[in-house]
Design a protein that fits this description.
The complex is a heterodimer of chains A (403) and B (261). Chain A is mainly α and 403 residues long. Helix content of chain A is 69%, strand content 4%. The two termini of chain A are 31 Å apart. Chain B has nine helices and eleven strands. In chain B, the strands form two sheets. Chain B has a six-stranded mixed sheet with strand order 7-8-9-4-10-11, with helices on both faces. In chain B, helix 3 packs across helix 4. The longest helix of chain B is centred in the C-terminal third of the chain and has 16 residues, at 182-197. Classes of the chains: A mainly alpha (403), B alpha/beta (261).
Chain lengths: 403, 261
C-alpha cells in the first residue's frame, strides 16, 4: 500500500513541480505577498504619519477682527501657515477646493464676549477622512490652550491663585485607568482577524490548482483511465493524490507562515515604537502553533477540492465548480473579525472559523492552549470525514466516467 | 483466453431524450449499454471488435479492463474472473487507445518507469524491460524529452511502451491508429502482428476495414449493445452479403437495426 501511494505521490509532485502555475501559487505568492503587504503598510503609514506631523497646516481665518487674540495664537503656532483667500459663501468650499486644510470662523463680538465673562463658539472646517490627518487635533489644541488661558485668568480673578486650586475646582474626581490588555492584545483584536484570511486563502490557493490537475486534468488528458487499469486499488490512487494536494496546501501555508516570521524578524528591527513592540512580542512558538492549526485545514481543502475535481469532466468545469469555494476562506475569516465572536467551546467546533479565531488569539497573545487541542481534534475529525467521502466518491463509476 | 458469458452492463439513464427519439436500450431509469454479450477469444488470436459509434464497444472494453464492473454476467481472462479479482486481471491486461494521453510534463523514461513501478516490477526487471522496449520501439532518441514536446507518432510509441511494460498476456487496442500518419499507423499494425506471433491474445477495435482484413482471426460486431455477428472474415462476407468488408459491415448493421426494430 505504502509503495503504491508513495509512487503516485512522488510522480505527481515531480510533475507539479515542473509546472510554473503551481510554483507561483504554492511558493511565490505566499512567500511574497505578506512581507510585501507588511512593508507597504509600515513604510506608507510611517511616511504619511511623518508628513502629517511635520507638514504645516494651511488655514484661512474668517472674522480675524472679531478676536485678534485667537488670531495671534494661530499665527504664533509654527505648525500653521496662514493663507490669504476671500471667504466663500460656503466656507467648507475652501477646504474641498484645496485652498487650505483648515478654516477658522470666529463669530462677531467674540473678543468682547470673552472679556465680559461670556463664552463664544469658533467653527472649524476641515476634512478628517484620512486616518493620518492631524488637522482637527492640532486646531483644537490651539483653541484649547487659548481657552485655558482665558479660564485661568477668570479663576485667578475669583481668587484661585494656584494651579492646584484650579485643578481641584475643575476636576474634583479623577479616574486612573489601568487596562489589563497590553498593546499586543489591543492591536491583535483589531488587526489580528486579518491574518487568518491570508493563511487560509493561501492554503486554499496552494491546493486548488494541483487538485484540479490531478483529478479533472487527468480525466481530460485521458491518463486517468490508464492509471485506473494498473493493479493498484483505487483507495491507494486517491490517497496518493490526496497527499499531494494536502502537501501543496501545507507548503503554501508553511511559506506564508515562514514569510511572516522572516518579515517579523526584519521589520521588527526596522519598525519603531508601537510596531516594534508588537512585532517583537510574537514568538516562534506562536508561528509553529499557527502552522499546526493549518494542517487539518489543508487536509479539509484537499479532500473537498479533490472530490470536486474528480467529478468535473474537464479542467475548466472543475475550475468553475471549485472557485466558489473561495467563500470557504472568506466567510470564516470575516466571522472571526465580527465583534463579539470569540473563541469558546462552541466556536471551537466550527470548522475553519475555529482556526481563524485561534490564529487571532495567537496574534493577540491570549490563546488558551487547551482550546487548541479541541480545535485540532474537531478539525481533524471533519477533515477525516471529508477524506472518507472522497475515497468513496473515487470508487463511483458515475463520477470517474461521467459523460 | 477471454471468455465472455451473458454480460450485461447498465447505467443510470441521465439523458433527457424525447419519447419519439428514445433509444431502445433505455428502460425507465436505466440505460442498458451491453445486453447478453457472449463470445470467447482463444489464446494467441486477434479478435476484431467492430460496431458503429455508440454500439457499446468502449463500455465493453472498459468492463473487460476492469475499469467498470459488470451489472451481471462474467468475463474471465485466463480463467480469472474480472469482478472477483480485478487486480490480478489488470496484471494480465494491457490497454492502448488512440486517444489516451500522456503526462505532458514527464519524459517517456519517467512515465514508463512510473507505470512499471505501479505494475509491481522491481528495479532490475524495470530497467531490463525498459531497455528492450525502448530499443524495439525506437524510443531512445526522445526518451528524455518532455512528452508534450513529442509528435503524435512518438507519443503513440510511448503509449505502446506503457501498455507493454508489464508484459501483458492480453492486449486491448481501442482504435490505436486514430490520428496517426500512414507510417506511424503501419508501425502499430506491424507491432500487433508481432505481438500475435508472441502468443498474446489481442482484442482490436477499429473502424478501418483494411485493418480488420489484415489482422483479425475472428470478428465480433456489436450494435445497440448486443452481439450481431460473431465469426471469421469469410463468414462476415457471407452473412453481410458482400465481398467488400465495408459493405458487408453496413449490411450487417442494417440487419441489426431491422432485428432491433
Amino acid at each position: 500500500m505504502l509503495l503504491n501511494i508513495s509512487t503516485i505521490f512522488v510522480k505527481e509532485m515531480r510533475e507539479l513541480l515542473k509546472d510554473r502555475r503551481t510554483l507561483v501559487l504554492m511558493i511565490v505568492l505566499p512567500t511574497v505577498v505578506l512581507p510585501l503587504l507588511m512593508f507597504l503598510i509600515i513604510s506608507m503609514t510611517k511616511k504619511a504619519t511623518e508628513k502629517s506631523a511635520t507638514e504645516k497646516v494651511t488655514y484661512v481665518l474668517v472674522g480675524e477682527q472679531n478676536c485678534p487674540d485667537l488670531a495671534l495664537a494661530f499665527s504664533q503656532n509654527e505648525s500653521f501657515e496662514k493663507v490669504d483667500a476671500q471667504p466663500t459663501e460656503n466656507l467648507a468650499d475652501l477646504v474641498t477646493n484645496d485652498i487650505c486644510k483648515l478654516v477658522v470662523s470666529i463669530p462677531e463680538g467674540a473678543q468682547s464676549d470673552l472679556e465680559t465673562g461670556k463664552d463664544t463658539k469658533v467653527v472649524l472646517y476641515f476634512n478628517n477622512a484620512s486616518a493620518t490627518s492631524r488637522v482637527e487635533r492640532r486646531a483644537e489644541n490651539v483653541i484649547s490652550e487659548f481657552s485655558e488661558s482665558i479660564r485661568d485668568g477668570r479663576l485667578i480673578a475669583l481668587g484661585f491663585d494656584t494651579s492646584t486650586q484650579r485643578q481641584q475646582l475643575l476636576e474634583p474626581v479623577k479616574a486612573e485607568s489601568r487596562s489589563t490588555a497590553d498593546l499586543r492584545e489591543i492591536l491583535g483584536e483589531r488587526i489580528g482577524g486579518m491574518l487568518p484570511y491570508f493563511f487560509i486563502i493561501f492554503c486554499f490557493l496552494g491546493s486548488l490548482y494541483p487538485a484540479i490537475d490531478l483529478g479533472a486534468g487527468e480525466k481530460e488528458r485521458g491518463t486517468l483511465e490508464t492509471l485506473l487499469l494498473t493493479p493498484v486499488p483505487r483507495l491507494h490512487v486517491v490517497l496518493g493524490k490526496f497527499f499531494v494536494v494536502f502537501s501543496t496546501g501545507l507548503i503554501s501555508s508553511l511559506m506564508t507562515v515562514a514569510s511572516l516570521g522572516v518579515s517579523i524578524m526584519y521589520f521588527g528591527k526596522e519598525a519603531e515604537g508601537v510596531a516594534k513592540q508588537i512585532l517583537s512580542s510574537v514568538q516562534t512558538i506562536d508561528l509553529v502553533m499557527i502552522l499546526v492549526m493549518l494542517i487539518p485545514i489543508a487536509a479539509l481543502f484537499a479532500s473537498i477540492l479533490l472530490s470536486i475535481s474528480i467529478y468535473g469532466k474537464s479542467f475548466k468545469e472543475a475550475q468553475s465548480l471549485a472557485t466558489p469555494l473561495n467563500f470557504l476562506c472568506i466567510i470564516p475569516a470575516v466571522l472571526a473579525m465580527v465583534p463579539g465572536v470569540q473563541l469558546d467551546w462552541v466556536w471551537a467546533l466550527v470548522p475553519i472559523t475555529n482556526v481563524a479565531l485561534a490564529i487571532k488569539e495567537l496574534a493577540k497573545g491570549t490563546i488558551d492552549y487547551s482550546m487548541l487541542w479541541v480545535i485540532l481534534g474537531s478539525s481533524t475529525l471533519i477533515a477525516s470525514g471529508f477524506l472518507f467521502f472522497c475515497t468513496q466518491w473515487f470508487q463511483r463509476e458515475s463520477v470517474l466516467f461521467r459523460e | 483466453m477471454i471468455e465472455v458469458q451473458s454480460l450485461n452492463k447498465s447505467f443510470v439513464n441521465r439523458s433527457k431524450t424525447k419519447s419519439k427519439d428514445k433509444d431502445t436500450r433505455e428502460e425507465g431509469k436505466w440505460f442498458h449499454a451491453l445486453r447478453d454479450v457472449s463470445f470467447s477469444v482463444p489464446t494467441g488470436s486477434i479478435l476484431g471488435l467492430l460496431g458503429p459509434n455508440g454500439a457499446g464497444k468502449t463500455t465493453f472494453m472498459r468492463v473487460l479492463s476492469t475499469a467498470l464492473k459488470p451489472t451481471s454476467g462474467t468475463i474471465q481472462v485466463d480463467g480469472v474472473d474480472i469482478a472477483k479479482d480485478p487486480l490480478s486481471v489488470r496484471r494480465r491486461i494491457g490497454f492502448l487507445s488512440g486517444n489516451t494521453g500522456l503526462y505532458g510534463r514527464l519524459t517517456p523514461r519517467e512515465m514508463i518507469r512510473y507505470y512499471g513501478t505501479l505494475h509491481g516490477l522491481d528495479k532490475a526487471q524495470l530497467n531490463q524491460t525498459m531497455t528492450l522496449l525502448f530499443d524495439r520501439l525506437e524510443i531512445n532518441a526522445f526518451a528524455d524529452k518532455r512528452n508534450d514536446h513529442l509528435s503524435a507518432g512518438m507519443k503513440q510509441k510511448v503509449n505502446i511502451a506503457r501498455t507493454l511494460i508489464h508484459n501483458p498476456e492480453v492486449i486491448i487496442f481501442d482504435e490505436p491508429t486514430t490520428g496517426l500518419d500512414v507510417k506511424a499507423a503501419e508501425q502499430i499494425l506491424r507491432l500487433v502482428e508481432e505481438l500475435k506471433t508472441e502468443g498474446r491474445t489481442i482484442l482490436f477495435s477499429t473502424h478501418h476495414m483494411h485493418e480488420v482484413e489484415r489482422l483479425t482471426d475472428q470478428i465480433v460486431l456489436l450494435n445497440m449493445g448486443t452481439v450481431h455477428f460473431n465469426g471469421n472474415l469469410a463468414q462476415m462476407r457471407e452473412k453481410g452479403g458482400d465481398v467488400l468488408l465495408d459493405k458487408a459491415f453496413l449490411n450487417l448493421i442494417g440487419e441489426g437495426e431491422r432485428h432491433v426494430a
